[in-house]
Design brief:
Number of domains: 2
CATH architecture of the largest domain: 3-Layer(aba) Sandwich
Oligomer: single chain
Distance between the termini: 12 Å
Bound molecules: nicotinamide-adenine-dinucleotide
Radius of gyration: 21 Å
C-alpha cells in the first residue's frame, strides 16, 4: 500500500479522505524532529509539508522511495526543487488556495497603517487621547505598487481596485496583462518606488530576490510608503527597513514573514509600541477557510497522483 508522511498541520476532514486510500502517518510536530524524519523517510512514497519541514538534499537522498511532495501552501523555498526534478519527484504547491486570505491581509493592513491605527491604539491604551495630534489618511485613490504579479499579486490588485486604489505592478517575467487586470499599470521598480503610497511584495525567495528591498530601494521611495511583506522575510532587508522607518523614509510596515522564523530578538527589540507597524507570525495565508481549501486541494492532488 502507498505510504504517505505528513509532517505539519492539515485539516482533519481532508486527512480522513487520505486515510481512506493510503497508509498515512501524521504528526504535525515531526518537522521539529529532524533525526526521526531522516530515519523514517525511506519508508514513504509521498510527503506532505508546510513551510517548516526542510526538504533539503540530505532528507531527499534518504527518501529514496519518494515520488510526490505536497506543499500545504505556496512558496517552495524549503524544498530542493532542483533535486526533485532530477529525481522525477513531483512537487505540488497549493497555488491560489490561500490567495484570498493573503489579499485580505494586504488590504486590511494597508487600511490600518494608512489610518495609523497601531499608533492610535498605543496612545489610547496608555490613557492619552491623540485625536488631533496624529494625522491619518484614507486608502481610496492612493497608489499601491505590487512587486511580483503572480497568483497572489493579481488577487491583491483585484481587492485593491475594489477599494478605490490605483495599482502599479512590477514583474519582469510577465509581458502582458489580460482584461481582468486592465486597471493595473505595468511599471518598472523605479516607478513603483517613486509613485507608491503602499508597496506590497508577492514574489518567491530566490537568489535573485534575496535582499531585493534594501537601503538603496528605501532611499528611492518618494512618498514615504507603507511596506507590506507577506512573501518571504529575506526579500526585504529587515535592518534597512527599521532604519528607513526611523529615518522617516517610510511611514509604516506590516511584516508577516521574517528572515528567521520565529522572529529573532535582535529584530523585535528594535520594534517599539509607538511605531506604525503590524507584525504577525506568518499567518496571512492561514485562515480557517484557506486551511480547508489548501488541505482539500493537496489531498485531491495526492490521490490523483497515486491513482
Ligand atoms: N505569508 C503567507 O502566509 C504566504 C502565503 C502564500 C504565499 N506566500 C508567498 O507569496 C509568494 C507569491 O505567491 P504566488 O502564489 O503569487 O506565487 P506565483 O508563483 O503565482 O507568483 C510569483 C510571481 O513573482 C514573480 N517574480 C519572480 N521573480 C521576480 C522578481 N525578481 N521581481 C518581481 N517579480 C518576480 C513571478 O514572475 C511570478 O509572477 C510565494 O512565493 C510565497 O513565498 C506567503
Amino acid at each position: 500500500m502507498i505510504k504517505i508522511l505528513i509532517t505539519e498541520f492539515i485539516n482533519q476532514n481532508s486527512l480522513n479522505n487520505l486515510n481512506n486510500k493510503f497508509e498515512v502517518k501524521y504528526n504535525e510536530k515531526l518537522w521539529e524532529n529532524i533525526d526521526e524524519l531522516n530515519h523514517i523517510i525511506v519508508d514513504y512514497d509521498g510527503l506532505i509539508v508546510r513551510n517548516k519541514t526542510q526538504v533539503n538534499l540530505n532528507l531527499l537522498k534518504k527518501g529514496s522511495n519518494l515520488k510526490f511532495i505536497g506543499r500545504l501552501g505556496v512558496g517552495l523555498d524549503n524544498i530542493d526543487t532542483k533535486y526533485c526534478k532530477l529525481k522525477n519527484i513531483h512537487v505540488q504547491p497549493a497555488s491560489g488556495m490561500n490567495a484570498d486570505s493573503v489579499a485580505e491581509y494586504v488590504v486590511s493592513s494597508s487600511m490600518s497603517l494608512i489610518k495609523k491605527i497601531p499608533v492610535f491604539h498605543n496612545g489610547t491604551t496608555k490613557g492619552e487621547w491623540p485625536r488631533t495630534t496624529i494625522k491619518s489618511a484614507e486608502i481610496k485613490k492612493k497608489c499601491l505598487g505590487i512587486i511580483g504579479f503572480g497568483t497572489i499579486g493579481k488577487k491583491v490588485a483585484e481587492y485593491a481596485l475594489k477599494n478605490g486604489l490605483k495599482v502599479l505592478a512590477y514583474d519582469p517575467y510577465l509581458s502582458v496583462l489580460n482584461d481582468k487586470e486592465i486597471n493595473t499599470k505595468f511599471s518598472n521598480l523605479n516607478e513603483i518606488y517613486e509613485q507608491s503610497d503602499i508597496i506590497s511584495l508577492h514574489l518567491p525567495l530566490t537568489e535573485e530576490t534575496k535582499n531585493l528591498i534594501n537601503k538603496l530601494s528605501f532611499s528611492q521611495m518618494k512618498k514615504k510608503p507603507i511596506i507590506i511583506n507577506t512573501s518571504r522575510g529575506s526579500i526585504v532587508n529587515e535592518i534597512d527597513l527599521i532604519n528607513a522607518y526611523n529615518k522617516n523614509l517610510i511611514s509604516g510596515f506590516a511584516l508577516d514573514v521574517f528572515e528567521t522564523e520565529p522572529i529573532k530578538s535582535e529584530l523585535y527589540k528594535k520594534i517599539n509600541p509607538e511605531m506604525n507597524c503590524i507584525l504577525t507570525p506568518h499567518i496571512s495565508g492561514v485562515t480557517t477557510e484557506s486551511n480547508i481549501r489548501v488541505s482539500d486541494f493537496i489531498v485531491k492532488k495526492t490521490i490523483e497522483y497515486f491513482n
